[in-house]
Amino acid sequence: MTLKIAHLGPPGTYSEQAALSYLTWLNNHQEITNLKSFELCPYPTISQSLQAVAKSEAAIAVVPVENSIEGSVNMTLDTLWQLDNLKIHLALILPIQHTLISFAKSLDSIKNVYSHPQALAQCQGWISQLLPNVKVTPSNSTTEALQRLEQETTTAAISSSRAAQLYNLPILASGINDYPENCTRFWVVRSEENNISACTHTSLAFSAPANVPGALVKALQVFAHLGINLSRIESRPTKRSLGEYLFYLDIEADVNAQIMISALEELQNYTEVLKIFGSYSVVTISES
Ligand SMILES: O=C(O)C(=O)Cc1ccccc1
C-alpha cells in the first residue's frame, strides 16, 4: 500500500525536507511501518496539507508549527483547531539554514526578494543590512517564487541550499538567518489516534467558558497542582470577537499516563471547548 504524505510545496520546501526526515526515521523503526511505500504530495498551503488528511486524500501531513526565531506558525495552529479528528504522531526539530538564490551578479542589483513570511522574518536583520532598498514580498512557501528567477534577474528568493540544488539555481549568499541556531519544529499529523505508548508530549487547545478574571489561571493550575510541566503556551484569537482567545498548550506528559487522565478530566471544568491534538515523541534531526 502507498501512503501519501502531504506537505507544503512546490518540491524543495523545508516541510518536504521534514517529510523526508520522517521517512528516514520510519525506516529506522521498520517494526512500525510494515514496509509500506510512501508518496510525497506537495500542496499550495499548509492549511491545504492538513485538509488533505482530514478529507482522506493523504494519510499523513508534515507541517511546521514553531520556529526558534519567529515563533508559532499561525496557519498550522488555526487549521488544527478548525479541523476535527487530526492527531499529532511525532514532532521533528530541523535545523534551518537559509540561502539567497538569484541570477543577479551581485547583491547591489537585486530589487525584489520573495519568500515564506517565516523565512523573511528569520532573515529580516540580514535583509535590512545588506538589501536595505529591496521590495520584500511574502509567498506561500520558500520555493513558490523560484520559477521567477530565470526570467527576473533582479529578483531573489530565500530558500534552502537543497532547493537551489534541486532546481539548479545559483546561491548568492548562505547562512543568512539572523541567528545561526535557527530551527523549526514540525508535526507529523494523521487522522487516526497515535497508539505508540510512552509519548513525551501532549498538545491541546481550549477556549475558556467566560472572559472573567482567573479563567486561564484556573485551567493552568490543574497542571501546576499535579506537578505536570508545560513546555509552551500560545494564544490565538477565537475570531468570534476582538479580545477573545484560544489557548494552546504543549504538555510534558503522555495523554494515557494516569496523572494526565486526571488532569484532563479536571481541565474539562475550566474550559468551554477542549481539543486534544495528540500525544507524541520529539525527534531532533541533526544537520544533513
Ligand atoms: O516554505 C517552506 O519551505 C516551509 O516549509 C515553511 C517554512 C518556512 C521557513 C522555515 C520553516 C518552514
UniProtKB/TrEMBL annotation:
Recorded metabolic or biological pathway in which this protein acts: Amino-acid biosynthesis; L-phenylalanine biosynthesis; phenylpyruvate from prephenate: step 1/1
Gene3D superfamilies, per the entry: 3.30.70.260, Periplasmic binding protein-like II
Reactions the enzyme catalyzes: prephenate + H(+) = 3-phenylpyruvate + CO2 + H2O
A GO biological-process term: L-phenylalanine biosynthetic process
NCBIfam families membership: PRK11898.1
Signal peptide: none
The keyword Manganese is annotated on this UniProt entry: no
Membrane-crossing segments per the record: none
Keyword Mitochondrion: no
Enzyme class at the top of the EC tree: lyase
Stretches assigned to the ACT domain: 204-281
Family matches, as Pfam families: ACT, PDT
GO terms of molecular function: prephenate dehydratase activity
Keywords of this entry: Amino-acid biosynthesis, Aromatic amino acid biosynthesis, Lyase, Phenylalanine biosynthesis
Protein name (Swiss-Prot/TrEMBL): Prephenate dehydratase
EC numbers on record: 4.2.1.51
Site positions (Essential for prephenate dehydratase activity): 184
Assigned GO CC terms: cytoplasm
Segments forming domain Prephenate dehydratase: 4-191
